[in-house]
Amino acid sequence: MQKANTHYQSHDSLIEVSNKLFKCLAQQLDVNTAYIAKKEPGYMDVVNAYNRDREIVTNDMSVEYKESNCKYVLENEAGIQYFTNLMTNANTAERPITEKLQVKAFLGVSIYGSSGEPFGTLCVMDEEERQFSNEDVTYIRTIADVLSFIIELDETHEDIDLLSVPIIPISADIAILALQGKVSQSRAVKIMDDTMGYAVAEQIKTIIIDISEIVVKGDEFIEHLNRLVAALNLMGVSVMLSGVPIHLAANEAISQALSTLDLQYVKSIEDALGLLGYELTEQ
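Predicted structure:
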């Protein structure tokens, strides 16, 4: 078990709504703990948790997917799984997470994102055995439907926010492309089209691409960046890359891929502008 990965979108609305629903859920099902876990590559990361008495699940918890109880929920075609007693069930008794948490009752259901794919799970647990009724299952499913709707709103709002391509003109032939958030396939196409269109229309000679606020999932972003840089180079535009985050520089595969790009690396936008003959002064 380790600290959860924090490099993903904010779920402020989901946390706010679930804070209001967790207490009702725990009281209705008479359990100690309720939590939302998000499925990340290889892990289940806790997004938000509530503990009525004993602290069992915390907001910074992350569990390997194959070791998690959520695995049973997500791999069940019905999107639901429950155990009366994790500590005596043949499938869960010997698992490290069972030993660590020392809980018996478990009930979990899938929650979904805007794509219709599972976002993760909504689960409840308790130190005592529980026989969950059909009414209990219906209740937690209702809560899960509400949370799925909130996730969809969050993701839709985020996609709208990120549709814009923030290009900042510095001079007649220099501009900054400040990338932030996630870069999906559709957004990568828009970034490519808008940046190339701007470079042609404004006769840009140098563009500074800042990635200090980028959120990277896998190596797809590097492929998108490579295509953008190659296209700009073909158009005679020189590229400077600033603000490479520490977690990217420390990733051997990503760092190696970045080193092959035909561009100049700088620590920050200020350094890039300095190399181009500009000086930032406080007013």
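Summary: The CA atoms of residues 239 and 256 lie 18 Å apart.
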